[in-house]
Amino acid sequence: MFFKKKREIKTYDRENRRPVIKASICNGEQVAGFRDIHTGAFEEVMLIRGDDDLAEFMRMYGIEGKIEKIY
Q1: Using CA atoms, how far apart are residues 38 and 32, in angstroms rounded to an integer?
Q2: Which top-level group of life is the source organism from (predicted)?
């Protein structure tokens, strides 16, 4: 009843993908996801509406440091 759900850390292919924030120039919408190093393909994971969402994305995947922003 009053127990919190255990949060799990998800994984991603660190050798072939890197975490990025894709931002729209027009409306400022930001989406967190992973970009393939070889092809440049972007895989969306979640919409970023503020600092809390970004922190949640980083916690979910165990990401530390700064995330590159692409347009």
Answers
A1: 19
A2: Bacteria
